[in-house]
Specification:
alpha/beta; transport; repeat; 4 domains; Fumarate Reductase Iron-sulfur Protein, Chain B, domain 2; iron; metal-binding; 4Fe4S_Fe-S-bd; four-stranded parallel beta sheet; five-stranded mixed beta sheet
Length: 438
């Protein structure tokens, strides 16, 4: 076999595709297959394309671009697979191979470089983005753009998302966030809180509530100053080297805290953090450190379920359903704790959605770059949400939170259905408020 073919096989992780026996168990759980009905948009179809490239039956890797670009990366196929196919690893490797060969236009190349290499990894720039959102809201510009209809004409359908962004947090409040919050009762753990990049810029209030809930549950909470973006968006974009560099920066920053656990409140970020061991498995200098970091990573629901939450006030027969984060379910394997916490609120009626594990179509920035496809998937999810007749939809990931809010708006249900992060709902029931709520 010629060296170039062997190198390509290694690049695409061809050997891992041999575990796929084309049984089809992945088909009914794949959102893109069930929505679009094309074999090339199914996990086994994508894997077969990689095999054909590795075997020389396809020579042009651009054939892979659309099928893999339209993959949500929800990894429900891994949960359904009876033979243990590592679809996530194949997806990462294939996307990276495509990106290495793709010629982006100058504007796209510059935008990718600016956002992935400069903005998301910089806490200073992400804070600036948060400040800008506050100024946009408080200056009256937001109101003016909405009334004029200009917001609806923003590119990439950003107007639809602009209408549902959460209330901004002031620069003063953002700057007053404590780096160390002590337990409100007998200490059980010291935890280091992962703030995230987009999470802290757009959902700072949820981060504040998360820290307060952890303190009420018996945790000393540290906010590590040198942490950075988790790297998930970089991995989804095929920029694996950038993702590895960010992983190393986070590992180094959190090691210094010597905390018992690294706690996050975003399903997508948490999935990336628990895979640092996989991400750096081939790096001799970082392998053990990455594995140790991943072993300490926890979703906030796991810590709250173990340590206990404050006394929760009864809700008057409130019907509640839960939109499961794909990455929390299929990568972190956290499924029990969020439901237990929701059910612990007195008086609520918990109704599980049909096809609860099916993706909502958010998937990082998928709903921006593939808006129409994302909306088709969301519409299917909303059919199941509406069947529950729930007045509250709980999520555990910022992308899911915005996507489900958009779904509620599209269905004309914004007056009767609230969409909340699990942390918001628990804090509300416990009577805990962020400073901006006082």
């Amino acid at each position: 076999m010629e060296p170039t073919r062997q190198a390509l096989r290694e690049e695409l992780l061809y050997d891992k595709t041999n575990k796929c026996v084309q049984c089809g168990y992945c088909l009914p759980v794949c959102p893109t297959y069930t929505t679009f009905g094309k074999e090339t948009h199914s996990p086994r179809g994508r894997i077969n394309l990689v095999k054909m490239v590795g075997e020389g039956r396809i020579s042009d890797l651009s054939v892979l671009e659309e099928p893999f670009d339209l993959c949500l990366g929800c990894r429900a196929c891994e949960t359904a697979c009876p033979t243990g196919v590592e679809y996530g690893a194949i997806l990462e490797a294939t996307r990276a191979a495509i990106v290495r060969r793709k010629r982006f236009t100058v504007p796209v190349r510059l935008l990718r470089k600016a956002m992935l290499k400069k903005v998301f990894p910089s806490r200073k720039l992400m804070n600036l983005a948060g400040h800008s959102m506050w100024l946009y809201e408080k200056s009256g510009l937001q109101t003016a753009l909405r009334r004029s209809g200009v917001a609806e004409k923003l590119p990439y359908n950003l107007g639809a998302f602009e209408a549902i962004v959460p209330r901004a947090v002031s620069p003063g409040e953002r700057g007053s966030a404590a780096a160390h919050v002590r337990s409100r009762k007998e200490k059980k753990y010291t935890v280091a809180f992962f703030t995230g990049c987009i999470m802290d810029a757009m959902f700072h209030r949820i981060n504040r509530l998360s820290i307060q809930l952890l303190a009420e549950a018996g945790c000393d909470v540290l906010v590590v100053p040198n942490q950075t973006c988790c790297g998930a968006l970089h991995a989804h974009a095929g920029e694996m080297e950038e993702a590895r560099e960010l992983a190393k920066r986070n590992i180094e920053a959190f090691e210094a805290s010597q905390a018992d656990f690294v706690v996050n409140n975003a399903g997508g970020c948490g999935a990336m953090l628990v895979e640092y061991g996989h991400l750096l498995a081939e790096d001799d200098a970082w392998r053990e450190r990455a594995a140790a970091f991943s072993a300490k990573s926890r979703d906030i629901s796991q810590i709250l379920a173990e340590c206990g939450v404050p006394q929760l006030a009864p809700r008057a027969n409130e019907r509640v359903t839960y939109q499961r984060s794909c990455h929390m379910t299929n990568v972190q394997k956290v499924t029990r704790e969020p439901v237990e916490l929701i059910k612990s609120i007195p008086g609520i009626q918990y109704i599980e959605m049909e096809q609860a594990e099916m993706c909502c179509g958010s998937a990082g920035i998928y709903n921006i770059v593939h808006y129409d496809a994302s909306m088709q998937i969301l519409d299917e999810k909303m059919k199941q949400a509406k069947k529950t007749d729930a007045s509250v939809i709980i999520t555990t990931n910022p992308g899911c939170l915005l996507q489900m809010k958009l779904g509620v708006e599209r269905e004309g249900l914004s007056g009767s259905v609230r969409v909340l992060h699990l942390v918001e709902y628990l804090a509300e029931a416990a009577g805990i408020t962020a400073s901006s709520d006082k």
